[in-house]
Amino acid sequence: MIFEPPLLPCTFxxxxxxxxxxxxxxxGSEITVHCPNSGSMRACQPPGVPAWITDSGNPxxxxxxxxxxxxxxxxxxxxxxxxxxxGIVEExxxxxxxxxxxGYASLAREVRYGAESSRIDVLLSDPERGQCYVExxxxxxxxxxxxxxxxxxxxxxxxxxxxxxxxxxxEGHRAVLLFCVGxxxxxxxxxxxxxxxxxxxxxxxxxxxxxxxxxWGVSLDAQQVRLTxxxxxRLPPLG
Length: 239
Fold this sequence. Notes:
The protein is of the alpha+beta class. Helix content is 16%, strand content 43%.
């Protein structure tokens, strides 16, 4: 995915009120930008680090700029705009980047499904292979030593999505939970049981029920972001 409009460099100062962040521009001025991330952004918002924003070019928007990427430590970038992963995954699927999800005849986004009135991020369909329901989650919580965890805040919505995916498997369809790992320093993903134990239990139940759990890492710079490599997902036994 090419960033369009192009990313603009800045310095990240602070995030507050969930969807607001202050940044400093190269000329020294400070502005408030939209922060499209409903999570806690733990471990990915150190003050005073390089960051990148986009300018919508829309003067009617209350906050014309959007926070996209933060350099959480030297050389390590993190995609914090949670509106991006679905498009990144769609682009990768269309290009055949993920072999386990290739070969389907059609792809649709945001399709209504399930008993709990959900929308699936990506629905893959094929006359011979049937349907594959793909739920995408953005992973930004780094724990150090290459380890990442999901979620970074309690997510009742995420747990609901796991129930919906399990129901699709029970109906004979294929269902996949795909973690889009938006940090460039991650080599393994685990459930954040200390943050949301309910989600952790649901994730293990989903895996046992036949929901496929996979993660893919990204290549991320000021010009583009794209899925490039699989990342192992580990589900350690609950204590």
